[in-house]
C-alpha cells in the first residue's frame, strides 16, 4: 500500500491549469524523485501535497487517510516532514535553537539534548551550534533545514530542491545523507532538476510536463527515455547533459 | 516543579547569571523597604507607575516575543477596568471585589480571544494587526464617551460618559466585621507582589516549550507550521495572555483611583505602551520592566511642569528609538554593559594566566 498517493489531483489558478489530474504513488521505503522542466508543475504539486495550496480537484491520501483538506501542520503531525525550496530557518535564533524547536515535538529532557548533539554532528554544524542561523552559509542553512525536518522523525521526508545553491561537493554530500536516511527505512520524495543529483539518489522517478505525468519508472529507464530527453532539453540535444 | 522553576533562566531572557539575580533581589529589597522611608503620596505615585507595568509586559510578550504589534492594550485595559467597576458596585464591595478582579481580567481575556480569533484565523497580520486593534480601541473610547445618559447603567453602576465611572470600592478584604481596603501602602505591596509573580511567570513562559514556539512563529510562521505547530493557537494564546495583563493593569488602576474614564482608553493612552516597550526593548521582559517604570516616572515628573512637554518628549523618544536603537535603548545599554563586563572578565583571566604560562612550559 502506498504511503502517499495523489488521485486525479488538479490545481487551477484562474484560467491556468498548473497541475492536471496527477496520479502519484509513493511506496514505503523508496526514494522517489519528481522531475520536469521549468513550469512543469513540480513545485505546485509539492505545495498541494504539503498543504500550502488547496487542490482544485482530486484527492490526496497519506498513510491511508484522506489529507486533501488538512492544514500543513496536521500533515506534519501525521508523519510528514517538509523542506521547502528556499532555505527557511529561524535566522535570528541560534542553530542549536532551530533544531531544539523542531526536536521538542518528539523529545524531552536529556533525550532532546542528546538528539540535538547527534543532529548537529550529522549535519556537520557542531562548530556553528551557537551561531545565529542567519549567519550560516547557504548550504549550511539548507542542511539545517533538512535537520529540522529530520528532527520530527518523519515517515515521509519531502524535499523541494534540497541542493539549490549548493556547491558540487555539498550536493554530493546531501545525496549521501539522503541515501543514508533511506537506508534506515525513511521514505523520501524529492523535487529536483539536477540530473546528476537525481542519478545519485533516485530509485523511482516521475516526470511532469505541462502539469501532467509524462513518464514514470526506474531512474535508468527515465534518463534514457527519448521523450524525456526531448522535453527536458528540446529537440536536437544529446541524451546526456 | 523544580524543572519548571529552572526555566526562569533561558535563551529568551537576558540576565541569567548570579550577578543578575543578586541585583534583582537588591531591587526587590529596596522596593519592599521603600514605604518605610517615603511619604504616602510618593508610595501612591510609585504604585501608580507600577500598575502600568503589567500592560507593558503583556505588550512585550505579544510584540517582542510573538511579533504581533497590538495597539489594543488600552482596549483591554478599559474593558477590564470598567468591568471591575460594574462588578464591584453590583457586588456591593467587600471581599467580592477579588472575584470582580478575577472576572474582569477574565472578561478582558475572553474579549481578546474573540477579537484575536477573527484576526488570527482571518490571517490579519503585520501592520493590519495594529490597525484593527487600534480601531477597536478608538471605537471603545468613542462608545464610552457617549454613555453620559442615565440609561447607560448596569444595575446601580453608571458609566457616566466622559466624566467616567466612579464609586466602586477598592480591592477589599473583609476580616470579621472589619473591611481592609487595599489602598496606599497595602496596594503598593500587592502590586509589587503581583509584578514579581507576573515577571517570573512570564520568564518561565518564554523560556518554555510554548515560548520557543512563540518566538519561532515571530521569526517565520510558515516554517513553524511546517514543524507541526498550529501557529494560530499559539498566537491566540499569546494575544490572550498579553491582553489579560493589560486587563490586570485596568483593574488595579480602577481600584487605585476608584474611577475610570474613557480618556484612559483613547488614542494618546493607547500610544503610550508602544513608546514604553519600544524604548525599553520589546524583545526582553527585564528591559521592558525597567524601561517602562523609568519612562512612567519621568513622564509623571515632567507632567507636573507641562503635560504638553511630556507628550512631545514621548514622541521624540519614539522617533529616537526607531532611528537610533530599533531594538530599544534599555536592552541596548544592558547588552553593552554585559559585553564590557565580559571583556573585563576575559582580560582578568588572561592577566591572571600569564604568570602561570612559564611554569607550565617548565
Automatic annotation (TrEMBL), chain A:
- Which residue ranges does the record assign to the ABC transporter domain? 4-235
Question: Which PANTHER family does the UniProt record give?
Answer: CONSERVED COMPONENT OF ABC TRANSPORTER FOR NATURAL AMINO ACIDS-RELATED, HIGH-AFFINITY BRANCHED-CHAIN AMINO ACID TRANSPORT ATP-BINDING PROTEIN
Task: Return the SUPFAM superfamilies for the record.
Answer: P-loop containing nucleoside triphosphate hydrolases
State whether keyword Transferase applies.
Answer: no
SMART domains the UniProt entry points to:
AAA
Give GO cellular component annotations, separated by semicolons: plasma membrane
Q: Which domain of life is it from?
A: Bacteria
| Tagged with keyword Transport | yes
Q: Which UniProt keywords apply?
A: ATP-binding, Nucleotide-binding, Transport
- GO MF: ATP binding; ATP hydrolysis activity
The protein depicted here goes by the name ABC transporter ATP-binding protein
Source organism: Chelatococcus reniformis
UniProtKB/TrEMBL annotation, chain B:
Name under which the protein is recorded? ABC transporter permease
Q: Has keyword Transmembrane?
A: yes
Q: Which InterPro entries match?
A: ABC_transp_permease, LivM-like
Q: Which domain of life is it from?
A: Bacteria
- Kindly report the protein's main subcellular placement as a broad class: membrane
Sample GO molecular function, one term:
branched-chain amino acid transmembrane transporter activity
Keywords linked to the UniProt accession: Cell membrane, Membrane, Transmembrane, Transmembrane helix
Pfam families attached here?
Answer: BPD_transp_2
Keyword field contains Membrane? yes
TM helices/strands, residue ranges: 20-37, 43-63, 75-92, 98-120, 127-145, 186-206, 236-253, 286-305, 311-337
Membrane topology category? Multi-pass membrane protein
Q: Which organism is it from?
A: Chelatococcus reniformis
Gene Ontology cellular-component terms listed: plasma membrane
Q: In which compartments does the protein localize?
A: Cell membrane
